[in-house]
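Input sequence (262 aa), recorded before submission:
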Amino acid sequence: MTEAEGYPGVGRVLVVIPTYNEADNIRSITERVRRAVPSVDILVADDNSPDGTGAIADELAVADDHIFVLHRPGKEGLGAAYKAGFAWAKNKGYDVVVEMDADGSHAPEELSLLLDQLRDHDAVLGTRYIAGGSVHNWPMRRLVLSRGGNIYIRMALGMPFRDATGGYRAYRMPVLDAINVDTVASTGYSFQVELAWRAYRQGFRVTEVPITFTEREHGVSKMSGNIFKEQLLRVTTWGLQARKDTLLSMIGRKPRQGSTWP
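Predicted structure, C-alpha cell format:
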C-alpha cells in the first residue's frame, strides 16, 4: 500500500490535534507525527488561539501537504473541537480518526501501536493504567484523582476499560457515525468517557493498548477542577439512568431517554 493510500490494513488516517495557545508545542508535535507515521494526515483544529498557534499551523500546512488547519471562531471546549475535526474527516473521506493532544503528552512514536490494533478492532483506547502503560511528571494528587476517577467510571457504568478518560485513541469512521457524535453533550474531558461508553454500549470491538503519558513541558494544562466535576456529575447521571433502564426492562416497561442520556 502506498503512502497516499493510507496505513496498511487500516486505510486513510487523520490525526486531529485540537489547539488553544499551543504555539510552543505545535511545531514539535506535528514533526513527531510526520516522522513516526509518514502515511497519516494531520488536522490542527485551532480555537482562534491568541498566541498565534493558528498562524504557525498555517505555515506548517503550506510546507507539508499532509498537514491541514481548521480555524474555529473561539474556545468552545475539547469536545466541540473534536466534533468539528470528526466532521471534517468524514467530509474528506477518511477511514480512521485519531485523537491526540498538542502538548506532547501523547507520544506520536506510539501511534502505530494504536493503528495496528485497528486491523482487528473498531476502536482503540490508549491506556495509562494497564501493564506497559505509565504516567510521567504528574503530582501524586493528580494521579490519584485520575486513577480513582477511572475506578469510579468502571463501577458506575459497568465498562471494562481501565482508562476511559484518556485522550489518545483511534476510531474507525463507522463507529463515529453509529454513535452519532453530533449529539454528544459533553464538552470537556467527559467527552472521552461518553464516546467510549457509546461505542461499548453499541457492541463495537473496543480494545486498550498501553501508552506512555508525559506531562507537558511547555504551556498551561487545560485541566481544572470544574472539568473534573463535570465529568463526575455526568458519569453519575448516566450510571443512575442505566440502572433505572435495566429495572424498567425487567418489569416490561420501555426505558425513556432523557436529554442527558448519551
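Checked by second reader. The mean pLDDT is 89.
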